[in-house]
Amino acid sequence: MAAPLELLIDDSPGELRAALREDGRLVELIVERAGHESIVGNVYLGRIERVLPGLDAAFVDIGLARSGFLARIEGLDGARLAEGVRVLVQATKDGVGEKGAAVTMRIALPGRHLVYAPLEHGITLSRRIVDADERKRVGAMVAGVAAPDGAYVVRTGAVAASEADLKDEVAALSALWEGIEAGRDQGAPPMCLHREPGAVARLLRDWAAAGLSRVVIDGREAHTAALAYARAHLPGLASAVRLHGGVEPLFELEAIEEEIEAALQPRVRLPSGGEIVIERTEALAVVDVNSGAHTARGRAEDTVRDTNLEAADEIARQIRLRGLAGRIVVDFIAMERADDRRRVQQALERALAGDRSPARVGGFSSLGLLEITRRRGRESLAETLCEPFTPSTPFRTALTVALEALRAAQRGAKAAPGRTLTLLAAPEIVETLKAEAAVARAALEGALGRPLELQARADLDRESYEIVVG
Fold this sequence. Notes:
The protein contains 13 helices and 24 strands. It folds into five domains: 5-33 and 211-259; 43-104, CATH 2.40.50.140; 109-194, Ribosomal Protein S5, domain 2; 264-374, Aminopeptidase (3-Layer(aba) Sandwich), CATH 3.40.630; 398-469, 3-Layer(aba) Sandwich (Hypothetical Protein Ychn, Chain: A), CATH 3.40.1260. The strands form five sheets. Strands 16-17-18-19-21-20 form a six-stranded mixed sheet, covered by helices on one side. Strands 3-2-1-14-15 form a five-stranded mixed sheet, sandwiched between helices. The protein is of the alpha+beta class and 470 residues long.
């Protein structure tokens, strides 16, 4: 039986944060900021700007500040693409830093039960559908309603779907593709032909199939949007969606703020007394497993193996939680027995099986290192909240601190309704609240019905601020 899933959403000025808990443990955090929304899944009619023949790649103008990067410039029909050619692409990764978004010509349109790839062929079932009889039953049902053209990836949620549900979804996805085709034929690049739904609807769609049992939302507007989407598309989930009505903010009440802080730190303690240490570089992430007190009493092979097994489970959780991607190298405590190494690798693979971003675990190298490759879809948690590649102590960006200060002001306003509020902060934070976070500040002031006074204080460091109630 699958572990219960809970989705907690905090919709605060300028920022939406979502926390997914599996069997009571936080396994995923998503932060989406106003003006920096994810474009993954959007479909664009673009134009090839520049071809990089040595890399078999090209830059594509898709109408954004930075061009998209197309890793393969060979069309699906085998033809080579050239500069100036119109091309239909879909974003697969958000831009990070100075890099633009990654795009592909292999379009995939997700639904609740199916993912439709209109330019390919065949039916593939999710590896999470493990029962052989269920795979046969669901595969036959999809084959019976599938459109003659295109390919389908059958998601886990299809197990609980009826034939009518699948037929309706096939029709909806086919209609969506027909609209995209019409835009491709009639439009002028660059333009967006399909935009993924907003963050709240996207979260519900992607996680409902996994068995969400509880959805709690701190924010009336986001709750209204979630309830409307659930009633229209996920009626069985609508009763589980509720508005957080307490005075204490949801993420504080559920200790999510503490978890976010912990997920930015390099060291993670293990219950046995060992620890894992996570360090990021521009090229890769490195995870080191330390025995700590657990093996200080003796380095018996069984003790070492058990510590590594415990670490494997926590490493998988931290990879998802922190949004680590690309190359991840793990240095487990050295194991002499090949069977122990095999058990640890299998435990890591099982723990990563529930990850939405595909991850591949390589075997142990001759030096005892294990490599993981994980597809990048969005910025990691640290890339979103902190300055690039800060050392062991995370250094939050000015925008991160400014949005935290707005949440503090919101709490102050609830505790003292009608009274004036003054935010004391470092000059850099005050400037951010007047510039990059101005829209978020205005949204808070509109909700409160009164202005938030700002006062720059040179004696406060960048990550400190105070709320003064008048």
